[in-house]
What does this fold into?
Amino acid sequence: MVLRNLILLGFVIVWLLVMIRVLLFKTGLIYIVKKWWRWIEDCFHVNQFLKVPEYNESMQENQLYKKVSLYLNSLSTLEDSDFTNLVTGKKPHDIVLCLDPNQTVEDNFLGAVLTWTNGDNVEQNGCRSFVLKVRKADKRRILKPYLQHIHTVADEIEQRKQRDLKLYLNIKHPDEDEDLHHQHLHRRGAGHVRWRSVPFTHPSTFDTIAMEDDLKNKVKSDLESFLKAKQYYHRLGRVWKRSFLLYGPSGTGKSSFVAAMANFLSYDVYDIDLSKVLNDSDLNFLLLQTTSKSIIVMEDLDRFLIEKSTAVSLSGVLNFMDGILNSCCAEERVMVFTMNCKDHIDPALLRPGRIDVHIHFPLCDFLAFKTLANSYLGVKDHKLFSQVEEIFQSGSSLSPAEIGELMIANRNSPSRAIKSVITALQTDGDGRGVGKIGPRLGNSGPRKSVEEAGETGGAFCNETGHTVKEFRKLYGFLRLKTNKVSHSHSFDSGSTPKDG
Ligand SMILES: Nc1ncnc2c1ncn2[C@@H]1O[C@H](COP(=O)(O)OP(=O)(O)OP(=O)(O)O)[C@@H](O)[C@H]1O
Ligand SMILES: [Mg+2]
It folds into this structure.
């Protein structure tokens, strides 16, 4: 009898346990129980907290933060956390999970439970951070291998995915008042983040830019050899960076070329708007906040310096280009300066080291026109081409932007498009071509006249030939010279370093 009762009781207990289990899992109450259990466990353990801030004390990006972010967003436990952001991935149908501020995610490593919290950036002066909670009892055993594990996994993810490029724009300092600004700069811990980023999706590539093939290939191989030259630069005691000057009339493709360079190198772009820089030290501060593998662009530098429409002085720009601060910043960087004309610019600014490569962007010639006709209209040859060539030979020219616009407007009829280009060349383009100087088309902006095509490829050498010679002797330069004088792109390479 007692035995029967015991068996019955056993059945009832098992049935109850099964029911409780079903109830817990069906309703999700199991998560609450787990949470309580963890809380009780925590009460009997001493934890240590480790913070990974986005920026270090000098407001430079903390690479570990990036890696932790990549690692955490790849964790499968993210799916089980209470609150997660869903965002579209690279492909339109991809949906990716990513941590929200104040959200916590758990990770298991070598039998230890580790908890990560995504710190709230509002509470921390705009600086984001991750906080790792680890039991003191586990710390000695697992912390080192765990951090190593994060490095490895993040590197793998980075290699796997093609880098999502970013365009960074400098924003005005929140305190317009300079004194206040200085105080802030000195209180570095509470530093302000001065760059805002947006995804960089500019479609421009070297293939879409109408430019002499020879020149294009030289720029490409220059950039490729730069990428491989880390040891070479270090052996010379030089910072691993390369500077380009893109100069030429408006609408000749300078900005598009910067975008093409970024896409070619897979580098982020930092676009410095000089009108939003408070002073020289503010410019340095911006430079400090840039990361490696990036292109730093200063557009229309000639206009800012001539008009003095920026609070940054010439010496501020010179220091920015090759100052000591560059060596403290991230490496593997390309600096690009664009100008309409370099005639009135202090030669000190253009000397090798500050500017390594000068590239001239001329108005359209017949060859460039044919490239544009091919890409905009899909036309390789046309009966009107001979007429177009004649007009170009007579000295008329327009910018690729102007010709491109006419072609886009008439893209349904190549003949009409080419005729409209001919008409525009005969009227607007008169006298703007080879060897002549004339006013810019349109009257926007203060730039009165621009250097025109027809100038030989050695403009850079004429001005600073002596310095270049010395410079070449020192570092064994290989001069990349444009052979065809008729196309006046001037590509004068300061150096083409070979990696040792
Ligand atoms: N060489 C070129 N090849 C193909 N497209 C070009 C070229 N130059 C200009 N374009 C087209 O013209 C437009 C304007 O070009 P972009 O902004 O690059 O000129 P820019 O030289 O930077 O002018 P600005 O000096 O006024 O800033 C772009 O849409 C670009 O596609
Ligand atoms: Mg531009």
